[in-house]
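Hi everyone, sorry if this is the wrong subforum. Our group has a chain we'd like a structural model of before ordering constructs, and none of us has done structure prediction before. Sequence below.
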Amino acid sequence: MKRTLAITLVCLLMTTASIGTLISIKPVSANQTQPTTMANIFTEGFEGDFPGEYWIVGDWDATNGADYWDDNAYRSYGGDWSCWCADIGTHNPDKYDDYMDAFMYILVDLSGYSSVTLSYYYWLQSELSWDFLKVMYYSSGAWNYLDAHSGNSGGWSYSSISIPSTATRVGFYFDSDSSNCAYEGAYVDDVSLDGTAVEYYVTVNTDPPGRTFTSDGTPYSNAVTFLWTAGSTHTIATTSPQVSGTSRYVWSSWSDGGAMSHSVTATGEMTYTATFSTEYQHTISTSPSGRSFTIDGSPHSSSQTQWWASGSSHTIGTTSPQTVGTTRYVYSSWSDGGTISHTVSPSSAGDYTATFNTEYQLSVTKNPAQTLGNIKLGSTWYNGVSTASAWFSSSASPAIEVTTPDTSGGTRYVFGSWSGDKTGSVNPTTVTMNSAKSVTANYNTQHNLTVDSAHGTTIGTGWYDSGSIANAGLTSDVVSGATGEQFVFTQWSGDATGQSYSQSDAITMNAPKTATANWVKQYQLTVNSTPISSVNVYADGAANPTGTTSFQAWFNESTTHTVKAEPSVTQGLDTYQFVNWTLPSGTSTDNPVSIMMDNAKSIKANYKLLSNVGWIAGHVYESDGTTPIASANVIIVGGSGSDITDSSGYYNLTVEPGTYNLSASKNGYVTGTIQVSVVTSVTTTQDFSLTYIDPSVQGWAVGFVYEIGTTTPVSGVTVTATGGTSDITSTDGFYNITLSFGSYTLTATKTGYSAALDSITIIAGQEISTNLHLTKDNDDSPPDDVPPDGTIEGYVYISGTSTPINGAIIQIQGGSSATTDSTGYYSLTVSAGAYSVTSSKEDYTSDTKSVTVNSGQTTTRDFYLILSIPPGDDTDSDGLPDSWEQTYFGNLNQDADNDFDSDGLTNLQEYAMDTEPDNDDTDGDGIKDGDDPNPLVPEAGTDEDILTNPWLWLVIILVISAIIGAGLYSRKKKRKPEESQEDESLPESEDTSLHEVGNVEKGVVAVAPSIPAMQWKPLTGRQRELAQGRFKEYKRKLNKDYKGGKLTKDQCLARVNKREVELGLKPPLST
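Answer:
Right subforum, don't worry. Here is the predicted structure as tokens:
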């Protein structure tokens, strides 16, 4: 506890300020002439706190206990208190401690004093010569001890002793030895440290004079001289800046280098000067206010007041123009006349103002926006813009102008008015720029209507406001062309509609529009009659006469029309009957006759005077026999008489006596044909009842019948569809049969011609065109013209299987057809091009494919037909027609997958291939149908056919025998059965077993086996149809070889006759 306290006291000793800073020294004013010589440096009566702020107490050696000086009220010289060398801080008048080393001192600065003395009063009772009270001071790094007192002072005694001015610490010390004999100790009171003070005159002023300052807190505004005690410390200070009007003074320095406020020590005569720099006030601003500028590079946008040192350099500047929205400011000048950015060096106060001229933005915008034209602002044009803007002085009144109209294609914009900050419709105009102005140039949008017409004069072409209604028109709907030619308006198209030539339907002009007038070219048809005139003529089935001869009518180009002359005409007592028409292309007995209007035409109806006539009259009814059918066509088949029924279904024909085939027909009804006999002067009544066919399920088979290989029409041909519906061709070979939808076989027959077959599929509401070709019996004419040079070939199968279908018809739409053989194979030679090809057969659904044929190339297309047996004809549901099963098996016990005759073909395959299911070798060539590549044609098999066919062996034996018997056999060349045997050394044979076929070329002989006539049976029904189809295709192939120079005419004729024998169309021994 004592050691800690001692250390604390030592630290306090080292850090406490010296006594010189604690005492009050009064400086002498500069106006005082005699400074004070003596001064009290320190006084202590111990009446206050002890040790207080000045005294430092402690024990040099605390090992024997810490003893300190302390104040007490036990004894005192003056006042109530004194200081006693305490016993561990506690007063004990009986005795002081042994081994005391107690001290107390103050810190002093005596450098400003001379003749320093320490005076005090003391009371002492101690062991004489052993225990002492001493004065001590610290100087030059060591403690010094003076004025030692011991023993008994006999009460309070006064003592005074000199202290050197170098002392920094002054105090008292009491020490005792090991025994004190119970003495009371030492007391000290009324201590005083005095000395003669050294004083200096110190002056404080400012530069420039008149600035304020303080000395030890007292303010002054003029120079002051102080008398300061040497070593005393004083505070001098000033303030900065110090403002006086538009000038101010900024402290720069004290002459001693001190801070603006700092302490100084009086060490001699001194002058302290506070130096100030002079600055002048300058205000930098803009007019109008708020514009940006810079001062020494620092940006500002409001007025700035700054203090600049006299003569200093500064840069002031601004930028131009300065834009704020639609207003801008353009630099004009600085008030000092300097450039936009310049340096100033003022020597007095002054202001700098940057003046700007105010400009406002003028903008003109087009409505609607478009960049077609130009905008003028002031004297400047802005080209190809929808908006333009420019700046004008606030006192200006610039002109504005826009171009009009602005046009692009079929749309244009026409100026209408100004709006916004300018109104009116004057263009150009002016605008007063007392503020920013925005003006809109309002345009009316217009669109052009173009009226196009190849003929006549148009009306309505021009410009119309957007959204308005316009109309296109013509001055006439008929325009003359070349002789017998005119153009007739039909309707408007493009952006216009309507059928009125003078005014189209309303056209809304919301865009450029084009109205196109459509015309149809018409040709004039002139109809005359001879040897009579004033004959009624009916065009296109009209119920009432179109005109009387002679007359003219106009018809559209490339259209076909019917023209009918009255079948019989009675004028006076004479009756004339229509004979025929004289046409540009020849004559025709058709009445009505069809005329194609591909140019202007003149036709004439020829009549003959009848000496004896009769009449056929009657009605044409629906199938109920009572509902009349109007506009039905009643004709003499193959003759010249015809009539069209009126609204009651009535018709009347004048004819010469005789027997006629009379036909009544109308689309949508089944044609009726009846044989009628007519006698002189008698009316034969004949009514017809026609069966109506629902239009939703009916179509029409139409076409022409020609002689094969020519375009010569054959009239009077009966064309019969499956089911019996038929028609008889007119003089131009045309037929028309109304049929329900479905697949049909058409058969064309006429005496003197071989029948022609073709298959078609009727589609509801459509005309299916098929041309038929008849071959004259015993036709020795050369083959047809060379067919075109592309080929379509392939096979027809049952869908989902590899079973071929025999007898399927391959029909090119509107063109030729072919029939598959028992292998399902077909081949068609056609012109190069694209075709729609349909494969069909009764009881199968048809299959249609698109086929493109290239010149000189073969295109392969296979067809797959779905077997579709009509309802009710497969009651056992085995996939085979009941009628077919009954024909071959006599019952319905066989299924499609059975092989009744064990020939390797199922019953379904037999049905599809047209082989006989109860005969394992249908063609009798010795090869079972399942093994025969073509089971319906004996010579179509392999070499095995030849080896197993007894008839062919007979032919070979006969040929060899003939050659050997004549001695002309030299060599033999084996050929395929369908080719001729060629041998230049082979002479014509007269053997009765060989028969020349046709007028053959030398060296070319076709032979047939000599078969008894009783063994040959003519083909009938389906087999004959198939054979005729194959024969027709064979002739077409020969035709190509003939025209290509591969075969001569006689060679072709020989092969044709031979093929007829092979197919069973002629007996083997016939020529």
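For your construct planning: Residues 1-34, 779-788, 939-956, 959-1015 have pLDDT under 50 and may be disordered. Helices lie at 2-15, 882-889, 907-913, 943-948, 950-966, 1021-1043, 1049-1062.
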